[in-house]
Amino acid sequence: MTKLIKRAVVIGATGMVGKELLKQLNQVESCEHILAIVRKEDESLKQYTKVNQLEVEDFLMLNDEDVADFTHAFSCLGTTIKKAGSKANFYNIDFEINAHFVDLFEGTETHYVLVSAMGANAGSPIFYNQVKGELENHLKHSNLAYVSILQPSLLMGEREESRTLEGLTQRLYQRFSHLVPDTFKYKPVTAEQVAHTMVEVAQNQNETLKIYDNLYIQHAK
């Protein structure tokens, strides 16, 4: 049973996908209130009339009362090992904080939407993919009413932080994008496409659990 987005809470709201998601949620007619959970207030988010910000220095301190009565929860939270500074810090952000956020909605009717990654696999020899897969498994075994998992490929767009390899790949893709067929499953997607898919599946998914691959994100209507 689908349900309208009326009250949405977003973690990872100040990242590339998170900001685009807030922009699109703010335009959803049925959506009355959006809560962006942030470490410090972001001035750029004040342009969205439906968005309020909750400042929390340590996201592991979030509790049930902070996120009560939301129809939808969205996680765009993620980093890189380079930015995190170590594998341990990366694991804390990409798994521990995300898993804690998931647990706050267990036993509720909230529809949970996660941005994961193509290649997510708890058994992968690649640490990044391994952690993403572990988080997906945590969602799959949690007591959540509805779960949507998006697995995008390389994300195109401007980030606040520099990611050297990602930036190089983006430039190469922009140069040769006309040669890449729409059926290529690894084709990069934009933050706008990912956010659009998040909003679309949040309003239309009937299944309790569904995974949306990169091809779906490319062509989401």
TrEMBL record:
Residues 12-204 form the NAD(P)-binding domain. Pfam families: NAD_binding_10. SUPFAM superfamilies: NAD(P)-binding Rossmann-fold domains. PANTHER family: OXIDOREDUCTASE HTATIP2. This is NAD(P)H-binding protein. It comes from Acinetobacter shaoyimingii.
